[in-house]
Amino acid sequence: MSTIGTRGTAVGFIGLAVVGLALTGCKSGNEEKDPAPAGSSAAAQPSKSTEPDTSASPSAGGGDAPAPGTAGTAKPGQSFKIGEAATVPFKYGTDKGGTIALTVTGIERGQASDLAPLKLGDKAKGMVPYYIRYSVKNVGTTDLSHTSVSHIRGLLPDGSEAQGISIIGTFEKCGEDSLPRDFTNGKSQTNCAVALAPSAETKVVGAEYWGEPYSSLNDKKGLTWK
Fold first, then answer.
1. pLDDT value at position 10?
2. Residues 159 and 115 sit within 8 Å (Cβ to Cβ)
3. Which of 86, 113, 175, 179 is exposed most, by the fewest CB atoms within 10 A?
4. SS3 string of 9-75?
5. Rounded to the nearest 5 degrees, what angle is found at the Cα of 206, between the Cα atoms of 203 and 208?
6. Pairwise CA distance, residues 90 & 103, whole Å
7. 165 Cβ neighbours under 8 A, 6+ residues apart
8. How confident is the model at residue 175 (pLDDT cuts 50, 70, 90)?
9. How far is CA 88 from CA 12, 50, 63, 84, 163, in A?
10. CA distances for 27 relative to 3, 126, 141, 158, angstroms
11. How confident is the model at residue 167 (pLDDT cuts 50, 70, 90)?
12. d(CA 149, CA 92)
């Protein structure tokens, strides 16, 4: 999906709510990733906490992620309550990975007017945004600097997926999902993803993480929070 940034504004792109497509939340580049398009604005800074755990010595490079469902890691298809952490074997690209504690901390209903700066036009007519807040904590031994824990999508009452949006630029309602430099053991960050309910009468009631290794297209083995 191509995206174009414009100075001082955020631009949104609605992704099809189909299993397997990358429905991402708010993202932006940084100096060690692909640079943002010329003229695009930087993403809003998410809130972070940095409580180092000296019991582990982080290292950069390859992953230390265990297989799902082993050593306390979340099993494919496992469900959690909102606010409950899941230990997740995390992989980013081909050369980075580790172990994270992933927690959906809340799902907030927004206003239809929130979407005006994204200039979605008729594509978002009648839709209502929901903001899925989730925290990421590095509980492994590898440095996850500048990786991105996305693949978070909303769930509707009937279990189907809410519409997702990819955003480039600054959207004050929802922070980015890129992890900062020196994201080592014990570091944590709060992120956000946007999900769209099809109408004011329908709510986004849950969230699903469908990143590897929970991304089976056929078995729908994502982790869910409600």
1. 54
2. no
3. 113
4. ECEEEEECCCCCCCCCCECCCCCCCCCCCCCCCCCCCCCEEECCCCCCCCECCCCCCCCCCCCCCCC
5. 135
6. 14
7. 12, 13, 14, 15, 23, 25, 118, 120, 129, 194, 195, 196
8. confident
9. 29, 20, 12, 13, 24
10. 11, 25, 25, 28
11. confident
12. 8
Domain ranges of the chain: 76-226
86-107 pLDDT per residue, tens: 999 999 988 889 999 999 999 9
Both tokens of 162, joined, read 């809410």
What's the DSSP call for residue 178? B
- What are the tokens at 13? 């792109």
**Quick check: bond before 213 cis, omega within 30?**
yes
Cβ atoms of 190 and 135 closer than 8 Å: yes
Contact present, 207 and 154 (Cβ < 8 Å): yes
CA dihedral 170, 172, 177, 179 (to 10 degrees): 80
Query: Which residue(s) pair with 139 in the sheet?
Result: none
C-alpha 106, offset from chain centre = 13
Cis ω on the peptide bond leading into residue 117 (within 30° of 0)? Answer: no
The answer to whether domain 76-226 has CATH 2.60.40.1240 is yes
Quick one: tokens of 211?
């990143």
153 with 30: CB under 8 angstroms?
Answer: no
CB 210 within 8 A of CB 153: yes
